[in-house]
Amino acid sequence: MFTGEDLKQALMALLRNKLLIVLVTAAGLFVGLLYSARQPAAEYGYDATATLSVAYGQNLGQIAGNTVISNYSEIVTSNLVCEHAAELLAGEGVTGEQVRRMVRVSTGNNSYVLKITARNESPQLAIKTANAVAGSFVSQVSVLTGSNTIRVMDPAMSADVVSLGGSSSFRLLAPAAAFLLICALLFVLEAIMGKTRSLKQCLTDQGELLAVVPLVRKR
Fold it and tell me: Where do the domains of the chain lie, and which CATH numbers do they carry?
């Protein structure tokens, strides 16, 4: 049975091993810094969004509208659309695969709005990419369906700053995780696997008392 005295001894074990805890935490910090150094320098990016109207001028039901949006969302990030968008961005030196990784698709408050958002470290490239993908998507769907059921309502005009947060967050998480891990390990080893117990612990234990070791404090 885990008692209050067991808790006290486990906490004291942490104090006795404070140097080990510091070293492990420092090692975690080193790993975090090393990881961050290998990541891209930029910690902030820019989001630019182009808004499209789907099934413009048609009366679709809610379920049908959701189905259209779902199908169109997959087309936006298809190789056909992204490769064509890369051609429109020929002067920017990006490939279709890079365009696809930059872009994500979301819906508006109803079934007739599609939002194409591009993220990049350059606000200008984010805006150009969002508009290029929107234009490519509209033209490709027009070719596939033979109708103008999609129109660009609001092209991307500006970009919002967003935190990329990957490397900076890891710099903080790595030492924190190392600190918690070593503390938890020492706590468990002392509380559950410890063989030497204080007199108070022995008085509450049901096991057999083998020996008493005097505690000598250094002066």
Answer: 4-38+166-204 (no CATH), 44-163 (3.30.1890.10)
